[in-house]
Amino acid sequence: MKFNFFFKSFFYSNKIDENIFNEIDILNKYTIAGDFRILIDKILIKFIIKNYKLLLLFILVSIPIPIFLEYILNNYKNVKLGNVVWTSWYDNPSNEVFLGFQTGKPEIATIYYGLSLENPIETKIEPESMIYHILNISNLIPDTKYYYKIEINNKFYAQGEFRTAPVDFTPFMFCLTSDTQPKLGEGWHSLVARKISEFNNSFVAMIGDFVEDGYEFEWFNFFNRASIYLKNTPLVPVRGNHDRPRDLNNDGIEEYFFEKYFPQSDDQIINTNIYDKYKQFYFSFNWSSVHFQILHFPEIDIDDLNDPNGVSLRDYYQSFTYDQIEWIKEDLRKAQSLPFRVTMFHCPIMSAGFYGPNSVLINELLPILLEYNVTVTIHGHSHHFERGYIENYIHKENPLNYFLVGTGGGLVDIGLRPIPETKIIIASPCFTEVFANATTLNFITYSPDGTILDNYIINKN
Amino acid sequence: MIKTFSFNPLIILLISSIIQTLIFISFIFTRIMNNWNDFINSNVDQIKLNSKIKYNQKIIVKLLKNFYFSIFGTSGIILSDTGFFWLIGGWNYLDWKYQFINSVICLIIGIECILFVYFYDFDYLKLTAFLSSLILYEIAIHILLPKYIIMEIFLKLAFPIVLIYSIFSYFILTSIKYFYKRKNILSEKKLLRFLLVQKIFNFKICFIIWIFSVIQTILCYFGSSLLNFFLI
Q1: CB count, 10 Å around CB of B104?
Q2: Among A346, A457, B2, B27, which residue's Cβ finds the most Cβ atoms within 10 Å?
Q3: How far apart are the first and last CA of chain A?
Q4: How far is it, in rounded angstroms, from Cα A231 to Cα A225?
């Protein structure tokens, strides 16, 4: 071989330039003559035969990567929803849950449920055919495992199980994950979901951004991948900014799949301002020693320089409505008797990610959370894991701990900058399991291979 | 944990593997072109184009080449900085199974790009372009950016300026040198000609780095890492 080193010829030798012109000379000669066949016969084919190894290597290196990227970037767009059923609840998981699922065409479903699948004690038939099914099951016994089976047209559709909430301070565990949306391919949502399914969780809290652009196939993709744990673990949803209503077909009609799948919002008042067109998604429930509060603050990003405080008017007024703020205060006031109060909403108050300390949330929401002695806030939005705490100037003995769990999918933040409140940051795949009892909350963050990345205990007082 | 900004090695690894793929493709392409020229020279009589056309074509090729290198050089600064700052504790090491190998690959490919673009045929203009780009980058990323509350605005507005400076400083300086025909004045001195570099980053090593970076990138895409396999 004439040249042994990589850059010797291609980068810095003039020889290669001259040789290129020689090639151009030849091409010109035959092109002018108009006889391409001579060119192909006499030069190209001989050359290809002589250098087939290099050409093959060139093809091997350059072609598979675009094919692979194309495959992983678009594969999820062709998925169809399997027979996936999810369980969730309104405000009383001790006595009432609902089962949700979607069918390809309007169908009437029948559900059998009870303490075992062999002898179901109750049967429920939907009153009319529908595509988006929400089956409410009430009058349940607290802290009891139930099994269910769903039939459509007398054919088996799906089966699963769930456990109702205890009324005393029974120890339990739940999982936190977020931001599973596919953008650059499907990411590691399947891997995380498989690992989550190995734990005996009472529920999985998904802190927003199920999907990226809001298309139905993205929701199918989420439910299919999460189905590995959804069959025996209820889902507690939080609305993210990417889950918002969107005009997907440019026909002036906005599609809001999130509301169809998760109808449990407590919001009864809409049109409090021109942007408040849909129900905000907030509700709360008690589980053992913990009061859980799900709030609607999906996107309060302070990066819109032309708007007041950097927040777009739409984002601000869709979140900061007087009815939600009053509801938060009233709900937290009622929950003071419980040892722990956990508040979940998508947009973080502060983080090492893109937006840093969020001045709007710090000024308008944080004082309420501190006043009512919230123990922990859980967020997504920034695509990394972060743990930190904010001093509570009212209840000085109880700092407000915050967790970001935005590593459930495939997107991670391009870079991080720790802020003074940051204690831990991780920007690789992980999820958080929480073990709760009457006196402690133990947050353990795992990587998908089971390695413990962070272990943090919060004691009562 | 050093309280400064650093890019996520997991993301930068994607860029690293693309860069290394381009490098490797360039290498194979170079060999094919050399063989092509040898083949033609030995088979066909040459017809010379007139000197003006040849000169213009030469300039175009040279400018494209300079631009190509300048992107590699800028990428080299970003990659090596990312790998270096993770390794010295830019973040905590809790997820080292994922990030350690990413950082090492970023650092190696970054150094590879810097050495070949800025230091292979050493001259002071290239050194000037390198040092000014490096200093500007370090000041912007590690001193100015952490002071901004909204990092995203800085990354959208100021970071492109740093990149554009880094790309065009090399491109303009090397192009000026070419037009004024001062090409060999300094390079002949070969003050820092890295003969060792030629031996380190040869075909086989480039191929091994490419294989590792691509496999690690694919594994990262699906939430795994090479170390997960080795350490099970």
Answers
A1: 16
A2: A346
A3: 75
A4: 11
DSSP B40-88: HHHHS---PPPHHHHHHHHHHHHHHHHHHHHHHHHHHHHHHHHHHHHHT
Q: Do B1 and A10 touch (CB under 8 A)?
A: no
Its ipTM equals 0.84
**Which helix (H) or strand (E) covers residue A133, if one does?**
strand A130-137
Q: Which residue of B has its CA nearest to A193?
A: B223
Show the tokens assigned to B213.
């970076």
Rounded CA-CA distance A431/A453 in Å is 10
Segments in A197-312 forming alpha helices (H): 216-230, 257-261
Distance CA(A214)–CA(A271), nearest Å, equals 23
For B:18-77, CB contacts with A below 8 A are: 21, 23-41, 43-44, 46-49, 54, 57-58, 61-62, 65, 69
Instruction: Give the contacts of B92 (CB within 8 A, at least 6 positions apart).
Output: A424, A425, A426, B1
Answer for the pair A415, B6: CB distance below 8 angstroms, yes or no. Answer: yes
Separation CA B12–CA B105 (nearest Å): 10
3 state DSSP class of B10: helix
Q: Report residue B159's pLDDT band, with 50, 70 and 90 as the boundaries.
A: confident
Both tokens of A61, joined, read 């290196």
DSSP annotation of A185 reads B
DSSP classification of residue B95:
T
pTM: 0.86
Length of chain A as a residue count: 461
Q: Give per-residue pLDDT as tens, A241-258.
A: 999 999 988 888 899 999
A52 vs B contacts (CB less than 8 Å): none
CB within 8 Å of A28: residues ≥ 6 apart: B47, B49
